[in-house]
Amino acid sequence: MLxxxxxxxxxxxxxxxxxxxxxxxxxxxxxxLRGLEADGLVSRTVYAEMPPRVEYAxxxxxxxxxxxxxxxxxxxxxxLHDIIHDREKYHEQYGC
Length: 96
Hints:
Blueprint: H1 2-6, E1 12-13, H2 14-20, H3 26-38, E2 42-47, E3 53-58, H4 60-94
Antiparallel strand pairs: 1-3, 2-3
């Protein structure tokens, strides 16, 4: 969710976040956004309209984490082949 929100120049509505994360159930998306809000990484703004409009955005803390997260994602991508190879070798050796 952080990566999704970080790729947007403006706050996003729940439905927009959901569309960009199709493999995530509505329940899991709701729980994740609540957790990120509780940690101060995401802000939630409710507008008193009918129907109510709710928007999510990264906080300053959330934006400060993006470079770290991108670095971690790059590391994982660059090492994925070797990790899979080592895991297969381990399973062959120990019969798991």
